[in-house]
Design a protein that fits this description.
single chain; DNA polymerase, domain 1; alpha/beta; seven-stranded mixed sheet; 2 domains; 14 helices; Rossmann fold; binds S-adenosylmethionine
Length: about 300
């Protein structure tokens, strides 16, 4: 079961009305989308997901609510192109990033360092690059760099060295083999501070799915697709995604530095967007759903 994070808050900030045209970029198990669909009886929902398994389950839920929706089975990097084939502008766009609980729970997807499976981690199982290729073929420098940048892992170099050494003897095939190599290449003290494989697994997943580049492009496109008065809501689960969101939202909602001292700001330099919210889950939600502990919701509105 997937328990949606910041559900009430994100739906409330989307400012839905019965005629709203909404895009859910991360349909997943339709936790958010089913709430949206219930409130837009005369509107329309476009929902993206690149995972066919998630879509199958989501479809069952949405069918029960209405037929004013379309599921688009592609990466949300294609957001603008796909939406513009259908419509010019929309009233709200939601991103609820990352993987869903069922994706993590299904051992065979290879996302979890607790469950033995082939190294995979692809959200879209039709793409060629997977975790096995990265772990067994990337050179030492590239492994170190992704562990540093995408995992913020302080033992990046020693873990990458451990991987390169291990694969000289035999290919690294499974999640647990990899988790063991990681464990062997960090200090005893570090092992006691949470699972030592967590950050490296996150880094490999981001690399497999090119998550940060894809998100940055899609977020910029989302801002272009929004009508005046419409909102973009983003739920992130780690600091790297949140940094991208914060930077883009700050850029588009502020007056360029060199113009800030002008007595009158010409219309074309006035920001087109206004930041509406930046919130974290309540303690109550974190207690009920541990996955929400690192979540953050940022909301921006188009004002002109
Ligand atoms: C956290 S889940 C969304 C859960 C959903 N909001 C709910 O409440 O049921 C994220 C979903 O987005 C999908 N996803 C992640 N990145 C994607 C991308 N770049 N393009 C399309 N779908 C993506 C994943 O496959 C996953 O199903």
């Amino acid at each position: 079961m997937h328990e949606s994070v910041l559900l009430t808050e994100s739906i409330q900030y989307l400012n839905l009305n019965p005629k709203s045209i909404i895009v859910d970029c991360t349909l997943g198990y339709a936790g958010h989308s089913s709430h949206i669909l219930k409130q837009i009886k005369e509107g329309y929902l476009y929902a993206f997901d690149q995972d066919k398994d998630a879509i199958k389950e989501a479809e069952k839920k949405l069918k029960e609510i209405g037929n004013n929706y379309e599921i688009i089975n592609t990466n949300f990097v294609n957001l603008k192109e796909e939406i513009n084939k259908r419509i010019d502008k929309v009233d709200g766009i939601l991103f609820d990033l990352g993987v869903s609980s069922p994706q993590l729970d299904e051992a065979e997807r290879g996302f979890s360092f607790h469950k033995d499976a082939k190294l995979d981690m692809r959200m879209n199982r039709n793409q060629p690059l997977n975790a096995y290729d990265i772990v067994n073929n990337y050179p030492l420098e590239k492994l170190t760099k992704i562990f540093q940048t995408y995992g913020e892992e302080k033992y990046s170099l020693s873990i990458a060295r451990g991987i390169v050494k291990a694969r000289e003897n035999k290919k690294i095939e499974t999640t647990l083999e990899l988790a063991e190599i990681i464990k062997e290449n960090v200090t005893e003290k570090y092992r006691r501070m949470g699972h030592p494989a967590r950050k490296v697994f996150q880094a490999i997943r981001i690399e497999v799915n090119d998550e940060l580049n894809v998100f940055e492009k899609a977020l910029k496109d989302a801002l272009d697709l929004i009508n005046v008065g419409g909102r973009v809501c983003v739920i992130t689960f780690h600091s790297l995604e949140d940094k991208i969101c914060k930077k883009i939202f700050n850029e588009v909602s502020s007056i360029p530095k060199e113009l800030q001292n002008l007595p009158i700001i010409p219309d074309e330099y006035k920001p087109k967007y206004k930041i509406i919210a930046n919130i974290k889950p309540t303690n109550e939600e974190i207690e009920k759903n541990n996955r929400s502990r690192s979540a953050r919701l940022r909301v921006i509105e188009r004002v002109m």
